[in-house]
Amino acid sequence: MTTLSPTKARANLTHWLKKASAGEDIGILCGDKVIALRPVRVFSEDADYAKREYGVTDAELKAFVKRANAQNARDRRAGRMTRYKGDLRAALRD
């Protein structure tokens, strides 16, 4: 790992960011700690959580939703699932 002082890193920051982006381990000293520069993936807020968190494809997610909806419909018809008609906020306060 290449370890830099903040002054040295600041003097040629673009250079060090490109190296870190290319996979090189770059660290900047902050007191007695080394802070690593690493690329991270950034997702927009509207990106689907299941796709991002579990790495599923659109087709896999669509198939799962279809199976879950079918199972819920079967459970409702069989009386294993009913709609809650109470006051959830009041129940949670108690």
In a nutshell, what does this entry contain?
The chain is of the alpha+beta class. The protein has helices spanning 6-11, 13-21, 49-54, 58-77, 88-93, and strands spanning 2-4, 26-30, 33-37. It has a 3-stranded mixed β-sheet.
Give your account of this protein's structure:
With 94 residues, this protein is an alpha+beta fold. It has two domains: 36 residues; 39 residues. It contains five helices and three strands. Strands 1-2-3 form a three-stranded mixed β-sheet. A hairpin with a 2-residue loop joins strand 2 and strand 3. The longest helix is centred in the last third of the chain and has 20 residues. It is elongated. This is Type II toxin-antitoxin system Phd/YefM family antitoxin. It comes from Oleiharenicola lentus.
Which secondary structure elements does this structure contain, and how are they paired or packed?
Blueprint: E1 2-4, H1 6-11, H2 13-21, E2 26-30, E3 33-37, H3 49-54, H4 58-77, H5 88-93
Parallel strand pairs: 1-2
Antiparallel strand pairs: 2-3
Protein name: Type II toxin-antitoxin system Phd/YefM family antitoxin
State the helicity in percent bands.
40-55%
Radius of gyration: 25 Å
Strand order of the largest sheet: 1-2-3
Strand-residue proportion: 5-15%
Q: Please give the alpha-carbon distance between the first and last residues.
A: 55 Å
Structural class: alpha+beta
Assembly type: single chain
Based on DSSP secondary structure assignment, what is the total number of beta strands?
A: 3
Task: Outline the low-pLDDT stretches.
Answer: none
Order of helices and strands: EHHEEHHH
Organism: Oleiharenicola lentus
Protein name: Type II toxin-antitoxin system Phd/YefM family antitoxin
